[in-house]
């Protein structure tokens, strides 16, 4: 299993939010605190067991620096980055199928 790090993009594998994408805000023990910038903003992150998450092996260095360095990150910045990663993954998937 890949290591769960701050600002890593993950996909939910179980629960009512299955197949949703999030960014890891922090990891404590067996739980990760996640944000999608919309339903779960930075001030109200979602707590989820890491065994129910699949790392996508993409992360944003600038967001990681902000989250670990105590600098302010914005919810819109997180939502925009997640949308861009998901759309680029779908484009690559469509190109492989053709």
TrEMBL record:
Keywords: Ribonucleoprotein, Ribosomal protein. InterPro entries: Ribosomal_eL14_KOW, Translation_prot_SH3-like_sf. It comes from the Bacteria. This is RNA-binding protein.
């Amino acid at each position: 299993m890949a290591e769960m790090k701050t600002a890593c993009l993950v996909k939910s594998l179980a629960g009512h939010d299955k197949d949703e994408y999030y960014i890891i805000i922090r990891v404590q023990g067996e739980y990760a605190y996640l944000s999608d910038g919309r339903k779960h903003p930075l001030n109200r992150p979602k707590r989820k067991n890491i065994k129910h998450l699949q790392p996508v092996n993409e992360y944003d260095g600038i967001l990681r620096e902000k989250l670990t360095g105590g600098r302010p990150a914005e919810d819109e910045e997180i939502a925009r980055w997640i949308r861009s990663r998901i759309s680029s993954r779908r484009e690559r998937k469509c190109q492989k199928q053709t």
